[in-house]
Amino acid sequence: MPTITLSGVSKSYGGGEHAVRNLDLVVPDGAFMCLLGPSGCGKTTTLRMIAGLEQPTAGSIAVGDRVLDSVERGLYVPPEKRGMGLVFQNYALWPHLSVRENVEFGLRMRKVPAPERRSRAEAALRMVHVDAAMDRYPSQLSGGQQQRVALARMLAVNPAVLLLDEPLSNLDARLRLEMRAELKRIHEESGATIVFVTHDQLEALTMATDVAVLNDGELQQLAAPMDVYDRPANRFVAEFVGSPPMAIVETGPAPTGLAASLLRHVEPRAAGKAPAAVGIRPEALRLGPPPDAAWHEEALVEAVLPAGSSWTVRLRVLDAELYAVSYTPVLAASGDVLTCWTEQLHLFDADGVRISSWDRAEATA
């Protein structure tokens, strides 16, 4: 499957409201692209336009040299002629058909001969590890098994592009973890291009080869998963990706307290203009004796929140509240005073655009 290209794509539903606004997006052949963002940001609308279920009100969508949508040229290719498979949040399985018959359904619509239908359906069910249940009905399956059957139905028709609209949101935590691993394995084995819609940053970071972060119908950043986390393009991405979210400290025209402390540390290293805000990720905020050249301040412990494999600590640092995440036990209690420090800070300008980051390990490498 050639590259999918969205050029200047917009979608409005009247009244001047845009679900998607002037979107330029390239999905490389064989990529696992996650469209990530909060509810109402335009990610599902974008997926439905790629699938052909929605038509853009401006711009064009092409697969390689083949134009699927072009408002300017009046071109539109219907969904069934796009060679794409779509898996909805609702599994949409036929309750009166067996698992095997559900998976064969798309092949039957394409008039594939019965012996080939059967072999392709069984191969798809083996790929998603539900072949032992092929003679059962959907009501006899767990939620995770039903999700696998929905995937198998799409894989059986061998689409070059697989479009997934939040397919894991109805599963419990354990099944979501299992299905994330399954989707990654299926992508590696099938080589299909996958476009996956999610509001769950963990899904995007763990599965995707590329992440497109959307907000208010506009693309905020397109990058590899860890680049989105380590080098967010702007404050929205910085605060949306990460749990707990990145703390943003406004500097203001006359900084005091924590803002003044941070600026004394980072201003000599800031490239170009002075930062209007400084960001600190909770995972990068440490407790204990600081190394040389690290930013540090005394912190009052307000709460220690154990979460099994990690500890989240709420701190009062000068005039601000910060959170620190530790992966070793925190032997402190509310009211204790500790030293907090970090070697990683993110700098943003007055428009919220990331100027740079300061990472002592990178700076001294």
Automatic annotation (TrEMBL):
Single Gene Ontology MF annotation: ATP hydrolysis activity
Organism: Nonomuraea rhodomycinica
Keywords from the UniProt entry: ATP-binding, Nucleotide-binding, Transport
SMART domains attached to this UniProt entry: AAA
Gene Ontology CC annotation, any one: ATP-binding cassette (ABC) transporter complex, substrate-binding subunit-containing
The organism's taxonomic lineage, starting at the top: Bacteria, Bacillati, Actinomycetota, Actinomycetes, Streptosporangiales
Pfam short name (any one): ABC_tran
Record-linked PROSITE patterns: ABC_TRANSPORTER_1, ABC_TRANSPORTER_2
UniProt domain ABC transporter: residue ranges: 4-241
Keyword Secreted: no
Name listed for the protein in its UniProt record: ABC transporter ATP-binding protein
